[in-house]
Amino acid sequence: xxxxxxxxxxxxxxxxxxxxxxxxxxxxxxxxxxxxxxxxxxxxxxxxxxxxxxxxxxxxxxxxxxxxxxxxxxxxxxxxxxxxxxxxxxxxxxxxxxxxxxxxxxxxxxxxxxxxxxxxxxxxxxxxxxxxxxxxxxxxxxxxxxxxxxxxxxxxxxxxxxxxxxxxxxxxxxxxxxxxxxxxxxxxxxxxxxxxxxxxxxxxxxxxxxxxxxxxxxxxxxxxxxxxxxxxxxxxxxxxxxxxxxxxxxxxxxxxxxxxxxxxxxxxxxxxxxxxxxxxxxxxxxxxxxxxxxxxxxxxxxxxxxxxxxxxxxxxxxxxxxxxxxxxxxxxxxxxxxxxxxxxxxxxxxxxxxxxxxxxxxxxxxxxxxxxxxxxxxxxxxxxxxxxxxxxxxxxxxxxxxxxxxx
Length: 407
What we know:
Elements: H1 3-10, H2 15-41, H3 44-47, H4 50-58, H5 62-66, E1 94-95, E2 104-105, E3 108-109, E4 113-114, H6 119-130, E5 172-185, E6 189-201, E7 206-214, H7 217-229, E8 233-234, E9 247-251, E10 254-260, E11 267-268, H8 271-280, E12 285-291, H9 295-307, H10 312-319, E13 323-327, E14 333-338, H11 355-359, H12 379-387, H13 394-406
Parallel strand pairs: 11-12
Antiparallel strand pairs: 1-4, 2-3, 5-6, 6-7, 7-8, 9-10, 10-12, 13-14
Organism: Drosophila erecta
Pfam families: Ribosomal_S5 (PF00333), Ribosomal_S5_C (PF03719), Ribosomal_uS5m_N (PF21251)
Keywords: Mitochondrion, Ribonucleoprotein, Ribosomal protein
């Protein structure tokens, strides 16, 4: 004890002063102990929430993301040990009045009781914990998949949202492009956004396309879909399945040559043009792209070509000539497609006009001849052709015999 305390005791100090001094000593000791234990119990895991800790373990820098790193990271491997647990039902099952059972049942006071062991419950909890870390992506239906697996380009995102009482019935929207773009802000620096290009249509000649950007993917998809529904274009179809005539169109460095094809030919073209044709309602088409294959240039060039189409009657009035079509599938049958409108100011031409050159603007696709392999003129190849001469038409003859035998 200090000299001051001894002097106060000897001088007959009040008992209350001694009590106050003892209380101050106790409070100071408690403060020291509380500070000591708070420092000991506080760590890195207590300061930050779980999400921040996981982010610090699995995060990848911006430079690493650009190089393709960290695609498989970010998965939490921890198990929730409280999953499937209930108070009182464990390895040592017990009835705890007030926790998992009532205190009084009727007129009887319930006491603690031990429950029977339930091995099936333990096995079920272990299976539940083991299955927590095995997350699998939901498998898409092959019809719902896009151009490349589960990625967004080529996938359907449904019709545009209704505007008032107007609903987009029988419309379907397809994503053509989904990419990440950046913009520099003065106060935020590099800001990431998602750019989505989509096309919507009802499959009967009414379609539109639009591009939208947003910080989130879902927002960009919804904005692009609704904006495409506001920019619909009416496109005339020939026989409700193909284009009216061959045409050439371009946008920027992209050139597209489109050709009309007979019924049942299908869509032989770039996948972007295929998707647009399915949305519009075009079933038979052949298209050849020359130059740049930028997606936005292809979409704009193709829509420009569709809008610049002319019907058979319009071409007949412009050229003052009859528009006829010779159908090879019908043994050279000639079908009249357009007759010029009779007018005194128009004079009918007597010479033939190449319909294909007229619609393509006197430009055609350059078709290069295929190069022959190096062994064509060799001695061994000539010997092979001599031996295969008597079998050259065997497959066709066999098919012909099979057809006639069943006829």
